[in-house]
């Protein structure tokens, strides 16, 4: 099957407290499916492209319901393996009145057994873009080896790729993250990360210097985000800045992935880097303006956000 995107990682069942903004007092929870890579895949699907997502899910009910959720979004899930382990989960409060606090139930999960042999060359040779993240590197050594393998294979096959640093400090230390992620932050079409994540991985506080170094290491487009504030980027040594649209942010979780998905979809559809970043920031802002990782992801055709939605965000 020919796909626009191939991505893999851990998807989680996210339990969000619904009767209290603290897990300490909540008795009721809503469950949704999320996860950095699957969020990117869903964004591409909503925008009218063909993404394929691989993971290992447990032979359990959470695995089954998540598979259905992802499939219902039009993402190809036919490669997902069911294994004899459990499907990961995350528990959080809504963040309506208190800061979001998360707990993971994922150590030793089904997805943490992902290994390089899972990623066949044919998955990569039949896609236009590979997307991976630092989260898969944090969940296990075999996850990190799989990311390395996939990025190297994609490069050898001439398939464009992206890598989102995505440091999860509840999963590993900054020191361990730097050791593993720095070698991987090279030779990709698109490197994405928050300012703090770039600082950890590149060991510097100077955004321009970091982005120039990323370009020198073969990351053609290096993008440094900072929530809803000014975004910095550099293409082949040319530095620029862009301001994301302002929205009332109610739940930023997942907005970074929608941003990444919007950028990838834009680049695949022939937008300039600046236009693709603008499209990504519209997707990110819309997700931040609603609760849940998928709720606000906009719709579109052929990889481009629908014009009416763009006009609404821009206030025209
Ligand atoms: O980027 C949003 C993700 O943080 C969320 O969906 C859960 O993948 C996740 C993680 O590992 O934190």
Characterize the structure shown.
The chain is of the alpha/beta class. It contains eleven helices and 16 strands. The protein has helices at residues 36-46, 61-72, 121-125, 134-139, 141-157, 174-184, 195-202, 207-216, 255-268, 273-288, 307-314, and strands spanning 5-8, 12-17, 29-34, 51-54, 56-58, 81-83, 89-92, 102-105, 129-133, 160-164, 190-194, 221-225, 231-235, 238-242, 300-301, 304-305. The strands form four sheets. It has an eight-stranded mixed sheet, sandwiched between helices. A four-stranded mixed sheet has the order 3-2-7-8. Strands 5-6 form a two-stranded parallel ribbon. α9 (255-268) packs antiparallel against α10 (273-288). The longest helix is centred in the middle third of the chain and has 17 residues, at 141-157. The N and C termini lie far apart (40 Å). Bound molecules: 2-keto-3-deoxygluconate (KDG). The site of 2-keto-3-deoxygluconate has 13 residues, from α1 and α9.
Ordered list of secondary-structure elements with their pairings:
Elements lengths: L4 E4 L3 E6 L11 E6 L1 H11 L4 E4 L1 E3 L2 H12 L8 E3 L5 E4 L9 E4 L15 H5 L3 E5 H6 L1 H17 L2 E5 L9 H11 L5 E5 H8 L4 H10 L4 E5 L5 E5 L2 E5 L12 H14 L4 H16 L11 E2 L2 E2 L1 H8 L2
Parallel strand pairs: 1-4, 1-9, 2-7, 5-6, 9-10, 10-11, 11-12
Antiparallel strand pairs: 2-3, 7-8, 12-13, 13-14, 15-16
Helix pairs in contact: 1-9, 9-10
The structure holds 2-keto-3-deoxygluconate.
The site of 2-keto-3-deoxygluconate has 13 residues, from helix 1 and helix 9.
């Amino acid at each position: 099957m020919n796909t626009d995107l191939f991505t893999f990682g851990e998807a989680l069942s996210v339990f969000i407290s619904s009767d209290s903004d603290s897990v300490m007092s909540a008795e009721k929870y809503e469950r949704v499916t999320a996860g950095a890579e699957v969020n990117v895949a869903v964004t591409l699907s909503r925008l009218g492209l063909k993404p394929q997502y691989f993971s290992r899910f447990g032979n359990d009910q959470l695995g089954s319901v998540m598979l259905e959720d992802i499939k219902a979004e039009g993402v190809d899930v036919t490669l997902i393996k069911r294994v004899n382990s459990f499907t990961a989960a995350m528990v959080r409060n809504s963040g309506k009145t208190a800061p979001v606090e998360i707990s993971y139930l994922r150590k030793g999960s089904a997805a943490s057994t992902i290994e390089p042999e899972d990623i066949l060359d044919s998955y990569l040779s039949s896609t236009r873009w590979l997307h991976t993240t630092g989260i898969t590197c944090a969940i296990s050594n075999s996850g990190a080896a799989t990311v390395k393998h996939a990025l190297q294979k994609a490069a050898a096959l001439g398939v464009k790729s992206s890598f989102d640093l995505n440091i999860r400090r509840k999963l590993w230390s900054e020191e361990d993250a730097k050791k593993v992620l720095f070698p991987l932050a090279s030779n990709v079409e698109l490197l994405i990360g928050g300012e703090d994540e770039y600082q950890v991985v590149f060991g510097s506080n100077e955004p321009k210097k970091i982005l120039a170094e990323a370009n020198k290491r073969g990351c053609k487009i290096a993008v440094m985000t900072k929530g809803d504030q000014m975004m910095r980027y550099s293409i082949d040594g040319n530095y620029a800045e862009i301001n994301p649209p302002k929205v009332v942010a109610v739940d930023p979780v997942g907005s970074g992935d929608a941003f990444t998905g919007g950028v990838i979809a834009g680049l695949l559809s022939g937008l300039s880097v600046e236009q693709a970043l603008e499209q990504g920031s519209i997707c990110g802002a819309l997700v931040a303006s609603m609760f849940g990782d998928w709720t606000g992801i906009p719709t579109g055709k052929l990889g481009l956000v629908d014009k009416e939605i763009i006009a609404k965000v821009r206030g025209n």
